[in-house]
């Protein structure tokens, strides 16, 4: 009498692998959907700021959009106007007048960052954005001190004067 060895069908090995792959794909797609839903309002507001800058401030092209939230929320569009001048257009989130700042009339982002690095020697700069502080355009720089503490420095756009400094939060 011969003994026959029973082999499992191939499909029994494939089924758990297919189930695991489907679960992984569903988790990835769910994560992407949640991420998209979470960032949609900010993306929409940035697109609106760009559109308003083009319509009312004559912005021809843009390179970056900054977002700040001091006492009010502002979106600042860095770009070039129709006269080929480098400008910042500061757009308030809750309505109000746009402010157009010629970049040559104030400090650039790189100049502000260079000052912060020289004067404060931060561990890491987290963000540098233009905003409106006490009705004046200003750079708001967020950084970590050497001890890892959160710090803010508000620097006047036109002359580089430090308007506010909050250290070691």
What is shown here, in short?
Pfam families: TseB (PF17881). This is Cell wall elongation regulator TseB-like domain-containing protein. By secondary structure, the chain is of the alpha+beta class.
What does this structure look like?
It comes from Secundilactobacillus malefermentans. By secondary structure, the protein is an alpha+beta fold. It folds into 2 domains: 33-102, Nuclear Transport Factor 2, Chain: A, CATH 3.10.450.40; 109-166, Nuclear Transport Factor 2, Chain: A (Roll), CATH 3.10.450.40. It has helices spanning 11-56, 109-120, and strands at 59-69, 73-81, 86-92, 99-102, 124-133, 136-144, 150-156, 162-166. Strands 1-2-3-4 form a 4-stranded antiparallel β-sheet, covered by helices on one side. The chain has a 4-stranded antiparallel β-sheet with strand order 5-6-7-8. Strand 5 (124-133) and strand 6 form a beta hairpin. The radius of gyration is 26 Å and the shape is extended. The protein starts with 10 loop residues before the first helix and ends with a strand.
SSE layout:
Layout (H helix, E strand, L loop, with lengths): L10 H46 L2 E11 L3 E9 L4 E7 L6 E4 L6 H12 L3 E10 L2 E9 L5 E7 L5 E5 L3
Antiparallel strand pairs: 1-2, 2-3, 3-4, 5-6, 6-7, 7-8
For the record, the count of structural domains works out to 2
> What is the CATH topology classification name of the largest domain?
Nuclear Transport Factor 2, Chain: A
The helix-strand sequence is HEEEEHEEEE
Overall geometry comes to: extended
**What is the highest CATH level, the class of the largest domain?**
Alpha Beta
| Count of helical regions | 2
**How would you classify the helix and strand content by structural class?**
alpha+beta
Report the strand count: 8
In spatial order, strands of the major sheet run 1-2-3-4
Please tell me the CATH architecture of the largest domain by its name: Roll
- Mean pLDDT reading: 89
Which blocks of ≥5 consecutive residues have pLDDT under 50?
A: none
**End-to-end separation:** 84 Å
Tell me what portion of residues adopts beta-strand conformation: 35-45%
